[in-house]
Amino acid sequence: MTIKIIYLLGLGHSGTTLLGRLLGAHSEVVATGGTKNIPLFVHGRKSCSCGATSPDECPFWSSVEQALRNRGQSLATLESGYDNQKRLDHQALRDYYASVLEASGARAIVDTSRRRTYFSQLEKNPDLELIPVHLFKDPRGQHSSSKRKGRSLAHTIWTYAMRGRRVRGMRPLGRPVLHVSYEALCSDPQGQLSRIMQAAGLEFEERQLTEFGANESHILGGNRQRTDTSSNIRLDESWRRRLSPFEARLVMLCNGSGYRKTLALTDQGR
């Protein structure tokens, strides 16, 4: 049996935490955050969105651990993150995903690891059915978030350009990449979620919009959106006050072309 994974590609602060929660509110989908966070969670350096700081404190992750142990594995020994991709144990990773499905009763998992290189490693596992979804942001909004985190404008301009180019050039096995803009997700969440659910072979559910904030989640990593209990979707346009006119113009000069190319892929339904 293959394991269905909705894999979110994109940069940090591009809205992947929000999208993960929207997808995870589906009755047959579970959102767990990025697999890279598992070793950090095991060692108390990352927390679960329920507040637990270790697997033993969380009923969900305790169930995952038990299911893993039944398969001869453990969260503590799982080489799961993209920092370890050269030595990934694909059988152990398959057992991990199967244990998540067993503990949650879901049919699909949302993995917000985001990296294209890690996705390429997962493609080597024949037991995984990958649905790649690229969430991207207006470059001014992306740079505004990076500026708030203290990152240099030059670094974020380069990263935005390179990551976008690499994802646009992807030729994944099976399904093509589904490109979704953050702005479109906020303005038409039902339409964008319906696109993703159709690609995953599942029906959109109204609860994904009306109850995602109240939905019990056990997400590792992500921003404060993962613990927000409201179900309101608000477009973040703080770049209008955070970026100077010069910065906004420079960002669009450097990244506007790539942004428009990715937007064109969403229009083509890819």
**Overall pLDDT metric:** 92
Main beta sheet strand tally, sense and closure: 5 strands, parallel
How many helices?
12
What structural category arises from helix and sheet content? alpha/beta
**Low-confidence runs:** none
Q: Give the overall shape.
A: globular
**Strands side by side in the biggest sheet:** 2-3-1-4-5
First CA to last CA: what distance? 27 Å
Helix content: 40-55%
Query: How many β-strand runs?
Result: 5
**Which band does the percent of strand residues land in?**
5-15%
Outline of this structure?
The protein has helices at residues 16-24, 38-42, 59-70, 90-104, 116-122, 139-148, 153-168, 182-187, 189-199, 207-210, 239-242, 245-267, and strands at residues 3-9, 29-33, 108-114, 128-136, 178-181.
Annotate the secondary structure layout.
Elements: E1 3-9, H1 16-24, E2 29-33, H2 38-42, H3 59-70, H4 90-104, E3 108-114, H5 116-122, E4 128-136, H6 139-148, H7 153-168, E5 178-181, H8 182-187, H9 189-199, H10 207-210, H11 239-242, H12 245-267
Parallel strand pairs: 1-3, 1-4, 2-3, 4-5
Helix pairs in contact: 3-4, 6-7, 7-12
Describe this structure in words.
The longest helix is centred in the C-terminal third of the chain and has 23 residues, at 245-267. The protein is α/β, with parallel strands linked by helices. The model has no long low-confidence stretch (mean pLDDT 92). The chain is built from 12 helices and 5 strands. Helix 6 crosses helix 7 (153-168) and helix 7 (153-168) packs parallel to helix 12. A 5-stranded parallel beta sheet has the order 2-3-1-4-5, with helices on both faces. The two termini are 27 Å apart.
